[in-house]
Every structure is written in C-alpha cells, then in structure tokens.
Design goal:
The complex is a heterodimer.
Chain A (H helix, E strand, L loop, with lengths): L14 H5 L15 E7 L5 E7 L1 H5 L3 E6 H6 L31 E2 L5 E7 L2 H10 L1 E6 L25 E7 L2 H9 L3 E9 L11 E7 L4 E6 L4 H11 L8 E4 L15 H13 L3 E4 L2 H7 L6 E9 L5 E13 L26 E10 L13 H19 L3 H8 L8 E2 L5 E2 L4 H11 L5 H10 L3 E10 L7 H6 L8 E7 L5 E5 L8 H13 L6 E4 L17 H28 L6 E4 L2 E4 L5 E3 H9 L13 E6 L8 E11 L4 E12 L6 H21 L30 E5 L16 H19 L12 H16 L1
Parallel strand pairs in A: 1-12, 10-11, 14-15, 20-21, 27-28
Antiparallel strand pairs in A: 1-5, 2-4, 2-6, 3-5, 7-15, 8-13, 9-10, 9-12, 13-14, 16-17, 18-26, 19-20, 19-25, 22-23, 23-24, 26-27
Helix pairs in contact in A: 9-18, 14-15, 15-16, 17-18
Chain B lengths: L4 E3 L4 H10 L3 E4 L5 H6 L7 E4 L9 E3 L3 E5 L4 H6 L1 H6 L1 H8 L4 H6 L2 H7 L6 H8 L2 E4 L3 E3 H4 E3 L2 E2 L7 E7 L3 E8 L6 E10 L2 E7 L6 E2 L1 H9 L4 H4 L16 H21 L1
Parallel strand pairs in B: 1-3, 2-3
Antiparallel strand pairs in B: 4-5, 5-10, 6-7, 6-10, 8-9, 11-12, 12-13, 13-14
Classes of the chains: A alpha+beta, B alpha+beta.
The complex binds flavin-adenine dinucleotide.
C-alpha cells in the first residue's frame, strides 16, 4: 500500500486548478463568430399565447434572429422527453403531454420559454428579448400540490385530465388495511416535503456549434451525463444523428441532479446554431436558474404506521401527492415512485407496506431528481413515523428502532417494496452513533439548556438508500427507458502512463483523485501518471453519467473490470517477454513475475513492448488498452444513523443545530477525506431543507422566493462542526465492495433535524412544524400551542 | 445592464452639477445596491456619477462630543475603527452585522442611508443615536431624514457628506436577520443619550420609526423588564414570506429587551 492507495486520504488533485481559477467551466469557452442567446420567458404561470410580434426586436441593433416555437415545430424538432414510463393502478401508462422547447399555444409556468433572441452580444440579445411583444390571455393557475388533481382546478394539459400524470401504487392495500385494523397502536402524520431549488454554484449553460462543412454539431454544456444528453438530443429530439453530435461537459460546478436533464435551452441553442450558421452561447443568470432548473421534492403526504403492543412494526400506509410541475422533466416520473416508495421499509422489518402516489401537473417549474431524489422523502416519512410512534408508546426512539431493525445476520433481506438489501449492520451504526453523539449526556445538556431558557431536542435518522444506480434489467422492468451500466477504457501509453476514459462525470465528486487512486492501486502505476478523461462523447466510451451515487459503485466497477482485462493482456505480453506461459505469470504491485522465480517485468515495460512489438508473437495483438462495461447486479444500500441535537430559542423561534453526528456505512472507502466532504455537503443540504430552504409560489404561480434575498441557502454559520464516522460492511456485489456516499447526508439530515426539532418542541405542547422550520414557523407553532393550552 | 455614461468627478460641486443637469443621473458610492439594480435592468440611467475619487468623504473623526463618519466610509471601516469601538461600540457592532465581508468592504454609510432600504441597519443607528446628516446643502437631524420606504429628505442634487453621531451614555443594537438576505427582519437600536432614551426600529415597517412608549418606560427605569410589557401595534408593519406583521411586532419587543440588556451589560 502506498500513500496513494485505496483507503488513503489523498488530497484532491483537481483543487489547485479550481481554487486558482484555472478550471474550465462552460462560460470559459468561446467559439469564433459566436452569438448569444437570450430567452423570452413567460411572466405568467398560465396563459394562452395570442400573438408574438418580432418586428421591434428585429430592429434592435445587433439582433441576429428571433425564433419561436412555431419555427421550431416547423423544423421538426421534437419535444423534450421523459425517459421513464410509470404505469398507474389500472395499468395505463402515465400521461406525458408534449413539452416543447419553445412554447407554442400556451405557457404553463413562470419562466417557460416563449422565444429566443440571438444577438451579436449578450446585451443585444437581452435588448432584443425585451423588445419581443407577446400578447397573452392569462388563465387561472393550478399551483397547490395537494389540490391540483381535485375537481374544479385549472387544467394544464388536455392529455392529462384533472392534472393527473399518474395514480400509482405499490404493495397490497387490502392486507395493509387489515393489519391496521388489528393493530394495537397506530400513528398518522400529515406533512409537506418542501420544494427546493437546486442552486448549483455554476449556472446551467450551453454553447452550440454547427460545422456547416462537416454537418457536425458540438455542444458544450453543463451536463452530468453527456452521452445521455447526446442520445436524447439525437434519437428523441432529432437535432442530428448521434454520430454527428459531440457533447462536451467540461468542468461543471455542481449539479445535484439538476444537470442530468435535457432542457429547452441546449436544444434551442443547437437548433439555432444550425439555423443561423454560427455558434450560439447561453449562460443562465441566477434568476433564470431559479425558475428554469428543475426543482426538487414537493410532496404532500399522509403516512401511518401500525405496531403491535410491544412496538413491533406491523404495517405502513402512505399516500403522497407529488408535484411534477408543468411538464415531465427527463426522469421526473420515477423520482416519487420507484426512487421513493421502494425505500419505505427503511432499516426495518415492516412486513406490509402500501403506498400510492398521485403525480400531478401544476403551473410551476418542472420537478425532478435533486440530491437523494425520492430517498430523502422516503426517509422523512419512515423516520418521522418511527419517532412519533416512540413518543406515543413512550419507548426511547433508539430502542424502538432496535426492536425493528433488520439484523446483521438477516441479509440478504427482501423488503415488501421490491428491494433486496445485500448487506449491512444497522445496529452497529446506531451503537456507534449513540457514542459519537454522546446521547448518554443529552439529558444533562437539555437541563442546562433549560436554565438558559432554551429548548433542547435530540433526533435520530436511521436511513437507508438505494444507490449505485442501477441494474439495467430491474430498471427496464419498472419502466425505465435506459440501461444504467457504466463503462471504462484503460489506455496505457507507450511511455507507461495511463489514460482512463470513463462514462461518468465529475462535477464536484473528485473522480480525478479517487479514480486515479483505484487505478494506481490496482495496476501498481504511480498515482501521478494516471489521467482521468471524462465528459466528452468523442473521447470516452458511452456511459450513463454521474448521479444516484453511482460513480464508485458502478463506474469504478467498470474501471476495476477493465483493470482485470489489462492484467490478463499484460500477462500474455509479459509471458512473451519473460519466455513463460501466461498462466505462470502473476501480477502484483505493478510487476509481472514468473511464479516462483525472480524473473519479472514492470507494467510500464509491458506497455512499451505492446506498442513497439518488434519480434512479437503472431497471435498477440499490439496495444495495451482495454474497455469494460459493467452492469451492476443490484443497487447498493448505504445506510447509517445520524443524530441531530438542536436548541430552540422559544422567544424568537430560532433553531440552532448544536451537535450533529453521523455514522454511515458506505462499504469500502476509497478516500476517507473525500467521503467526509461528501457527507458534510450532503448534511448541509439536508439542514437546508429542514430549516432554511423552500421554494414558495404565490397563488398566481409567481415564485416568491426567486432570489437569494428570499431563498435561504445554508451558510457556514448555520451548521456546527460535524462529527462524522463510518463503519465498513463491504458490498458483496461489486468488485471493490463500495456502496456510494454522495447523497447520504441529504437523505438522512432532514429527518434527523426535524425529529430533534419536534423533540424539543414537545415540551411546550407543539406536535407539528413543517419544513423549513423557520423561526417564524417555530414561533407560530409555540404560540398556537400556548393559545390552545390556555383554552 | 443598460448602457450609461460613467463619470468620476473630482469635486462635490461637479458631481452635484451632473445630477442637476441630467435627469437620469445617479450617484454611486459602494455600488452594492446600485449595481445589482442596474444588472437586473431595474434601472435605466443616463449617467453614473462615481464618488469613489473623493478622499474628503472617507474617514472617521472622533472628539469628546461625538464621532463624524464620512459618507464614503465603508461598513468594514466603521466596524474595525478603534475610535468608533471606543466611543459608540453599538455602532461598530451594527456595521459589523451588515451583509457579508464583500459588502462591508464596498458598501458605505452614505449609500446606505441615502438608499433608505426599510430593512437596512444604519437608519436604526442614526435615529437611535439622534445623529445628524451633513449634506452639501444643510444639516438634517436623523429624525427628519428618513421619510418613507426608499425615501429621504435629500433633494435632487443634494449629496450626503458625513454623519455626526453624538456619544451616548450607553447603547446597543439587536438585529433579528432575515434568514435569506440577512437584512433586518427587525432591528432595534436602544440608546441612553444626553437628551433622553431613544428606541429606533428598522425592518419592521416601511421606514425606521421610534417607539415612544418604550422610550418613556426606559426613561423611568433603564432595564429590560421595562419594555417587556410594551407591544407595538401591527398596523402598517411589513408582511412577507419570512415574517408576519404579528411576528415582527413580537420581535420588536424581544429585540428591544435584549438591546437594553446588552446596553447595560456592555
Ligand atoms: C448581499 C448584500 C447584503 C446586504 N446586507 C445588508 C444588511 O444586512 N444590512 C444593511 O443595512 N444593508 C445591507 N446591504 C446593503 C449595503 O449596506 C449597501 O452598502 C447599501 O445599501 C448601499 O451602500 P453603497 O455604498 O453600496 O451605495 P450605492 O449602491 O452605490 O448607492 C445606493 C444609493 O444611494 C445613493 N447614494 C450613494 N451615496 C450617496 C451620497 N453620498 N449622497 C446621496 N446619495 C448617495 C446612490 O445614488 C444610490 O441611489 C446589503 C447589500 C448586499 C449586496
């Protein structure tokens, strides 16, 4: 093991260029003769477009073109797609109404794309966009999640009566109902899982270039999955045949899911580039990001848990209305169904689970996957129910969890909601978390806080997530339109250094470091001589990209498999060089050696021989390059227990997180420092959801929280110094035993924090506060409880 | 941003001249409010008149009687000033709580008070301390300077030169920040001065205002419990997605109580 091996906290090699301003983000790219795009966006949540008058805009100096949805349709550019078809209770496929990249007859949310103005400069494009005259007939808007599918609401799409995209279910309702009627105890909760705006630090952007000579398009874009973007843009939207479209996603400044999707802007930029015969560049302004990046979450849920007299879970019953926004975004349909309800077993042996979900259209920005995607929502349901049940039964919440955990010796464990958990040790993670969080000392800390006039509370979140997304066959059987395998090419250069070409994409996850660690470790080459190539469809094998904590579990499995192939090939070459049979060669620490002898040759020499194959045997191919595709056998199941401790100032309603501890099982850890960083970031986002962030629409569908003046991003002073530890139960299902860590924090934290908030507020008679638990909300809840008590 | 002409005059007279002659000309101090407004195309100006070159407008002078702060003095400079910390620590604390380091290193006291954002901090400081605004034309007592939401007594072409603060016996500022913007949802400045007790509230209403009932109670007894029973009416208070009028009214009492406690303690 060297300092750069698997398991070492190698410093991120990408950081120097990032923090010295030498990264290459989208807006850093320019093409000769480039133009700029500005979108005319709908100021209304719901309106008919009566007329678009371009005359004035075309007269603005520097305006090159003004293009509308009618022209887009006339050029036979297809509409945006949703890649996962959900079948409803009656077996019918979900309703996927057309989602034009530029609206034609109607606009359906504030920010919807009405026209694009191309200018010689950005200012000219913006001046032009302001000069486009659009005549609207405004329509009443359906904004509220819970009521969107109720009778009498304004209708968004003729194809989706009652704004219902689907009414889906999982589990056996009759059996669950029967279990509830015979149960000793039950709790029922109703809550909102608040809508979030992704807010990646780099806004979305696209630079589209069309080569009039070769007929080739090049799209530079902020994508988490450039190959998927190319596939969708060519096969479904019809921009160009796949081989005539190159998609490049260079350094990307954060995605959190929002850059998985194929949006209107890059579609329009490509189309416009061909139409005007010049490159077109668009970079979102922050206010555009707020209204046009797909949002996350937005559920209204009723959830119930039934137990026997000893607190053993008998059944869970959940109804969720999930807001999908105005149109179906790329993976929107799967998030509140297969990425959500399939996690409702949590870490527990609940034998019966039923969940039905109504996916509804509203006059709001489309909603899709956002860090955790469905799993934070599921964890919130399960862990809030467990905590309230513990309070009701007067059983310590950690004890109630232990009574119901799937035990370490019970894996593989099949839940009543599809998943088969491969491995885990929930009890150990909890035990360690209790220690790290010093739960034993909590009562004293609570008493001390009380003396200072503060309400102190402690909350757990024992979460599980399905990531390492995902086995293609499973995805296909559930309606997914893609395979979710991953790819890697390991290419040795003649001088012995190595380029790794992968289908994943790093936008904050440090693949440049961790992937190089794995390759250095597996092939015994110096860490510094490994280069990771990502994010360019012309330079990498087809891959599905990065999201769902899949890059390690799936992507590195492909790398690992390719490394195996390299070793196999290397043995043949080494055998030739050492005059031994390949099967007599062993490979260790970068050296091929004839077993039982000291005859050996280094992998760099092998590479050189492969490229300079003078006197090479006939049956051996030159070259030292291998490609592997890896389709996972199952999801992976990171799990753990997080403990949040809060203090609430009852006078102002302010919640302070005073302690936060996390013990996670991510399987094998490649770089503990990077894992810790991922956990920190995730927790902060989860804290954001719990206490700070919330997209608020007014009744007319205007986004009231459309800037940082009103949308509260978490800041450093909103969180304490976290205590983060891990336990390691390697996954038996992939070569490295890794599970994934990208989303855990965001999945676990909202429930942990909100359980702590509820624990603190129970003392003053408050039984419910919604997320985000802002000072105003907490203060109001306390005051209402006091009023109620006074009656 | 729409196009405009940028000017950087050397004298206040030259600056005032541009403002008088060009209808759509505006001064720029730190630009922390003006530039975002321009970038969002919320304003279309013919001229931006930058005060940055005027050294006379920068600086802090302390005497026994008071502290004078030049209009172009940044929040950061006020927060870090040993003189201000000694004479009126509450004012240094107020300046230190404005925005973030970048904003404090650009934003100025002159810009802040001329803009008179209903949620800005300085208006509470000026009114709470009974300060005087010195302009190119006259001296305006703080009580007469802040007229309404984004509205001041400044006339066209009139430029703030400095603010004169008398030194209070004791004072404190307590701010309850908007969780998103960190401007004040409610900020209360309490001061015991030679001319009596002053309680100034920002963030709660359309413009900074005083609370005479609290001032009277504190004049009798300068102690936190004196204000606990005083609640202000909710009429005319701001309501938004962060705070109802009722919550703001409640916070005025809580912040006033804490400010008095801090003034006594510090
Ligand atoms: C992210 C952020 C956070 C902020 N947080 C806070 C906060 O917590 N609390 C708070 O109080 N403020 C806050 N601010 C506002 C900040 O304090 C600004 O500095 C202030 O509002 C304007 O000062 P400025 O020097 O930047 O003025 P500018 O933006 O340059 O000018 C503002 C206005 O004042 C006029 N003006 C400027 N100087 C003069 C003068 N000498 N005479 C007459 N008119 C003049 C200008 O014409 C313009 O209309 C924040 C700003 C930002 C960007």
């Amino acid at each position: 093991m060297t300092d750069m091996s698997i398991g070492r906290a190698v410093k991120r090699t990408e950081d120097l260029r990032f923090i010295t301003g030498k990264g290459h983000y989208l807006d850093d790219f320019s093409r000769p003769h480039q133009t700029y795009a500005a979108f005319v966006r709908s100021p209304h949540a719901h309106a008919e477009i009566k007329k678009i008058n371009k005359t004035k805009a075309l007269k603005v100096p520097g305006v090159v073109a003004v293009l509308t949805g009618d022209e887009l349709a006339a050029d036979k550019i297809g509409t945006l797609i949703c890649g996962w078809v959900i079948k409803g209770k009656d077996g019918s496929p979900h309703k996927a109404p057309p989602h034009p990249a530029l609206a034609t007859k109607k606009v359906r949310y504030v920010g919807d794309h009405v026209a694009v103005v191309i200018g010689e400069t950005l200012d000219a494009a913006k001046d032009g966009a302001e000069a486009v005259e659009v005549e609207y007939r405004t329509l009443p808007a359906a904004v509220d999640t819970a009521s969107a599918h109720k009778p009498g609401q304004p209708q968004l799409h003729a194809e989706a009566p009652n704004n219902l995209c689907y009414d889906w279910e999982i589990g056996d309702r009759a059996k669950v109902d029967a279990a509830f009627s015979g149960a000793a105890h039950a709790v029922k909760l109703q809550f909102v899982n608040n809508r979030l705006v992704p807010n990646a630090i780099e806004p979305r952007a696209a630079l589209a270039d069309y080569d009039t000579g070769s007929g080739e398009f090049t799209l530079y874009t902020t994508s988490q999955n450039p190959h998927v973007a190319r596939l969708v843009l060519s096969a479904f939207i019809g921009i160009a045949p796949e081989h005539k479209l190159r998609v490049i996603a260079p350094d990307v400044g954060g995605g959190f899911g929002s850059k998985i999707f194929i949006y209107a802007e890059e579609t329009v930029a490509l189309w416009a580039a061909r139409k005007i015969g010049r490159p077109v560049k668009w970079t979102a302004e922050r206010s555009e990001s707020f209204v046009s990046d797909a949002h996350g979450r937005d559920h209204v849920t009723t959830a119930e848990l039934a137990t026997d007299k000893d607190g053993k879970f008998l059944a869970m019953r959940v109804n969720t209305v999930a807001n999908l926004g105005a149109y179906l975004s790329t993976f929107a349909s799967a998030v509140p169904t297969y990425l959500y309800a399939t996690l409702l077993a949590g870490q527990y042996k609940t034998p019966l689970i039923y969940c039905d979900v109504q996916g509804v259209f509203t006059n709001t920005t489309p909603v899709d996957a956002y860090r955790g995607a469905g799993r934070p929502e599921a964890t919130y349901v399960v862990e809030r129910l467990v905590e309230e049940m513990a309070a009701k039964l007067k059983i310590a919440p950690d004890e109630l969890r232990r009574r119901n955990f799937v035990q370490a010796n019970e894996f593989p464990y099949t839940t009543p909601v599809i998943h088969q958990y491969d491995c885990g040790d929930f009890q150990r993670a909890q035990r360690e978390a209790l220690r790290v969080a010093d739960v034993a000392g909590f009562a004293q800390r609570k008493a001390d806080a009380k003396k200072r006039g503060k309400l102190r509370g402690l909350g757990y979140s024992s979460y599980i997530e399905a990531c390492g997304i995902a086995p293609s066959a499973a995805v296909g059987s559930l309606g997914g339109g893609v395979g979710l395998w991953e790819s890697a090419t390991i290419r040795f250069n003649p001088t012995g250094n190595v380029s790794i070409h992968v289908g994943t994409h790093s936008h904050g996850q440090s693949h440049q470091t961790t992937f190089a660690q794995v390759v250095a470790d597996r092939l015994g080459v110096p860490f510094e001589s490994v280069e990771i190539v990502e994010g360019d469809t012309a330079r990498t094998p087809f891959g599905m990209g990065t999201y769902g904590s899949r890059s390690a579990a799936v992507g590195l499995s492909a790398v690992s498999k390719a490394a195996d192939k390299i070793v196999e090939k290397g043995k043949k070459i080494a055998g030739h060089l050492l005059e031994a049979a390949p099967q007599d060669i062993e490979f260790r620490d970068g050296k091929f050696r004839v077993m039982g002898t000291d005859k050996e040759v280094g992998i760099a020499q092998v590479a050189f021989a492969a490229y300079v194959p003078h006197n090479y045997p006939k049956d051996l191919e030159p070259g030292f390059e291998e490609t592997a595709f890896y389709d996972p056998l199952n999801f992976s199941f990171p799990a753990g227990t997080h403990v949040a401790e809060v203090e609430i100032d009852p006078e102002t309603g302010t919640t302070e997180i005073v302690n936060y501890s996390a013990v996670d099982d991510f399987g094998t850890i490649i770089n503990p420092m990077i894992v810790e960083g991922q956990v920190h970031g995730g927790i902060v986002q989860g804290v954001g959801q719990a206490l700070l962030e919330g997209a608020v629409y007014d009744a007319d569908g205007q986004l009231a929280s459309g800037s940082y003046m009103d949308y509260t991003m978490p800041r450093a002073d909103n969180v304490p110094s976290f205590k983060v530890e891990t336990i390691v139960v390697p996954s038996p299902l992939n070569p490295l035993g890794v599970k994934g860590c990208g989303e855990a924090g965001a999945i676990a934290a909202p429930a942990a924090v909100m359980n702590a908030v509820h624990d603190a507020l129970r003392a003053v008679g408050v039984d419910k506060v919604e997320m985000p638990a802002t000072p105003h909300r907490v203060w109001s809840a306390i005051r209402n409880a006091k009023k109620k008590a006074a009656k | 941003m729409y196009e405009f002409e940028y000017q950087k005059p050397k004298t206040l007279a030259a600056a005032a001249d541009v403002l008088k002659k060009k209808k759509d000309a505006k001064l720029m101090a730190g630009g922390m409010t003006l530039i975002p407004t321009l970038k969002l195309r919320l304003a279309k100006l013919s001229h931006v008149v930058d005060l940055a070159g005027m050294k006379d407008l920068v600086g802090i002078k302390a005497t026994k009687a008071g502290v004078t702060i030049g209009a172009m003095t940044t929040h950061g400079a006020v927060a870090a000033s040993a003189a201000v910390k000694k004479a009126i620590p509450a004012l240094a604390h107020l300046a230190d709580g404005i925005g973030d380091p970048a904003v404090r290193n650009r934003g100025t006291i002159g810009g802040s008070i001329s803009n008179n954002d209903p949620a800005a901090d300085y208006p509470a400081g000026l009114v709470g301390l009974g300060a005087t605004v010195v302009t190119t034309q006259r001296k305006i007592p703080a009580d007469k300077f802040f007229l309404g939401m984004f509205e001041t007594a400044l006339k066209r072409g009139e430029i703030v030169k400095a603010v004169e603060f008398p030194i209070p016996k004791r004072a404190a500022y307590m701010k309850f920040p908007n969780p998103a913007s960190r401007y004040a949802i409610v900020g209360v400045f309490v001061a015991e001065t030679a001319d009596g007790v002053r309680v100034a509230v920002t963030g709660a209403g359309g413009c900074v205002f005083r609370v005479p009932e609290m001032e009277a109670a504190l004049a009798k007894k300068f102690a936190p419990e004196s204000v606990v029973g005083v609640s202000i009416p909710t009429d005319g208070l701001n309501e938004d997605i962060h705070a109802s009028a009722e919550y703001r009214a409640h916070l005025v009492t809580v912040m006033a109580k804490r400010a008095v406690a801090a003034a006594i303690g510090g």
